[in-house]
Amino acid sequence: MGGEPADGLPAPRRQLSALAIAVAIAMCVLDASIANIALPALVSAFDAPPSRMIWAVNAYQLTILALLLPMAALGESIGFRRVYGAGLAIFVAGAGLCALAPDASFLIAARVFQGIGAAAIMSINGALVRHTYPVSMLGRGVGLNALVVAASAAAGPAVAAGILSVADWRWLFAFNVPIGLGALALAVWALPGATASRARFDWAGAALNAAAFVLLFLGIDKGLHGHPAGWVMALSGLTLLAALVWRARAHPAPLVPVDLLRIRSMALAASAAVTAFMAQALTMIALPFLMHVVFGRSLVETGLMMVAWPVATGMAASFSGSLTGRVPAGLFGGVGMTVFAAALAAWAFMPASAPPALLVAALASCGIGFGLFQSPNARDILMAAPRGRSGGASGLLASGRLAGQTAGAVVMGGMFHFAGDNAPRLALGLAAVFALLAAAISLAKLGGAPQRR
């Protein structure tokens, strides 16, 4: 359909647009977390070491991270719906290629291709939410979107367990194809046709951004695996990133949203997101290995027990969302991340003989803590930006999430290399530290000025 009303979409198109947005983002987030629990099966299927197969996760996340900000800028330039639809088509095609992968190298390459599509979807997801809902309902829409993201990330293990109980690992990717095609058909009709800014797309900045993030995270990964040249790559990436930020300072709508990061509440919320999602990524990779390899639980049993996480996340996010605007987001974030840190510390010292009830309780505590944090923090980022910079805010929201998740996955790969079977417990302890840091950053928001509307 054509343009959009100035204040969101009318019903029932608003509900259909929200459904299309939710299905697409859920697939992208699920795909990352599903791969985590599939890692042991992939290691066995391809007879490859965990330190190599973890790139089935890393390649996907690193591609998304490298392209999030360029895709957000492209959406502002040529229109959000165009970029979103193209991204969804690429994502579906990539899922089909993953399902057909004959070896580990092909799978990793297919995950890169799939990541291109996921970057287009995730980068402007928040902007589409903002253009879908009227101002009076925006808080509810942001909360629903944040709930879908958090619940999808946590539900991945349970979905993977259900699929693996009746089929092999290839169906973990193949199931996306029919769902994605349905979401694409709905998106073409229902999504808001937000007016493009017609600003020239910064191709040089996009290339600089992608190179900076790839060099940074690949360099860290190689450095953690004992290759000194990796640290040179990482330093080169940091240098390019600094140059990109400097280049963006004078631009009215820069690819790297330095203009938005001057807003205190947004800068703190984005920083909290990076550290919180780094803790989550470490946890989501470490727990399946801890429960399956160390505790001796089956993959199906592991996934089914982890259902406690998304259920608790949904309850906590619903609670925090209902109080949005009345209770400061910084308070929810501080309390939620403290609960998350305490649960992670308990997991780090959990005995292998722990009864299932205790494991489920510890998983539910993780979900409660993360649910209290995620929805209010995402709302802070999107609500603090002017409406005309909703694409930049959306890219920043997605970049904060993916930067943390990718960094966590890269660090986890290094821990597997150096610590072997001790890596899951060490990772959970490190995740608790990052959760406490996110709590401190969230509480720092309490002393700031009111948000921009």
From TrEMBL:
GO MF entries: transmembrane transporter activity
Species the sequence originates in: Glycocaulis alkaliphilus
* UniProt GO cellular component terms: plasma membrane
| CDD domains reported for this sequence | MFS_MMR_MDR_like (cd17321)
Task: Give the primary localization class.
Answer: membrane
Protein name from the UniProt record: Major facilitator transporter
Note whether Membrane occurs among the keywords: yes
> How would you describe this protein's topology in the membrane?
Multi-pass membrane protein
Q: Where in the cell is it found?
A: Cell membrane
Q: Which InterPro entries match?
A: MFS, MFS_dom, MFS_trans_sf
